[in-house]
Amino acid sequence: MTVEPVLSVRGLVKSYDGNRVLDGVDLDVGEHQVVVLIGPSGSGKSTLLRCVNLLEDLDDGRLLLDGDDISDPRHDAGKARRRMGIVFQAFNLFPHLSVLDNITLAPREVHGVPRKEATQRALDLLDRVGLSDKANSYPDRLSGGQQQRVAIARALAYEPRLLLLDEITSALDPELVGEVLALVRELAGQGGTILMATHEMGFARQVADQVVFLDHGAVVETGPPEQVLGDPRHERTRLFLRRVIDAGRI
Ligand code: ADP
Ligand code: MG
Predict the structure, then answer these.
(1) CB 121 within 8 A of CB 157
(2) Which of 36, 102, 179, 225 is deepest in the core (most CB within 10 A)?
(3) Under 8 Å CB-to-CB from 202, ≥6 apart: which residues?
(4) What is the distance between the alpha carbons of residues 250 and 20, in angstroms, rounded to a whole number?
(5) First-to-final CA distance of the chain
(6) Which of the listed residues 114, 129, 160 is the one where a domain comes to its end?
């Protein structure tokens, strides 16, 4: 018996103004797997994550979430999106709302969850990301690392089948990167299913089940980290890794 992946991307094509940004991407994320997207700036990593989250219209291809074709226009995109959580590079917390309200806003306002229930759930989530004491703080009183942990808590609000993380440590001061990656590692250890773009190669090497190297909107190579990062088959992967090493990111 083969186990169905949580996410299957098939032949995904996305263009902006005639520029093919994703050029037929195929990708699977199995249950409890951490799949790490690497690739040069502009290779299409963010576009891929945004397409998976149905924040963009696809030009071609299919997205299957637990076998459901969520890219079918007849599928309710809002419902599909609720089965995923997404966190972006820049903190997207609402500055005028407390940490607690940031987390409970969508459940209460969009999904009609009663305040008491939403609050209890948010407090549990804050406990999970180690920020119980910050429930009533405003985002500008938190460090960048703490803000990203709140954003992760918010993304976990619906117990997502799939967590999408787009370079969530890139905007952080170096000393704050560790606490956010430690949280991702913990979520992975708890059986989370994660598709993430990152430049943190050390993290990818330790935590990824699979690394996908994307270049010019196409998957150049994919495999376990020790293979893709340690013994890449393709010249383009080697060149990219060399540049990353030269930049001191490995
Ligand atoms: P990455 O995340 O790997 O750096 P992106 O997915 O952000 O790459 O971008 C891939 C390409 O798509 C880039 O050339 C970028 O300029 C282009 N692009 C991304 N979003 C848009 C958009 N909304 N409109 C036009 N071009 C875009
Ligand atoms: Mg990006």
Answers:
(1) yes
(2) 36
(3) 250
(4) 30
(5) 38
(6) 160
What domain count does the chain have?
Answer: 2
SS3 assignment for 211-227 = EEEEECCEEEEEECHHH
- Global pTM value: 0.94
Closest CA relative to residue 219, chosen from 4, 67, 12, 7 = 12
Instruction: Pull the structure tokens for residue 170.
Output: 């890139």
List pLDDT tens digits, range 194-234.
999 999 999 999 999 999 999 999 999 999 999 999 999 99
Confidence of residue 90 (pLDDT cuts 50, 70, 90): confident
User: Nearest bound ligand to CA 50?
Assistant: 1
Residue 101 lies in a domain: yes
Tell me if 88 is assigned to some domain: no
Q: Name residue 78's beta-bridge partners.
A: none
Query: Do residues 143 and 92 touch, judged by C-beta distance below 8 A?
Result: no
Burial degree of 113 (CB within 10 A; 0-12, 13-18, 19+): middle
What's the 223 CA to ligand 2 centre distance in angstroms? 21
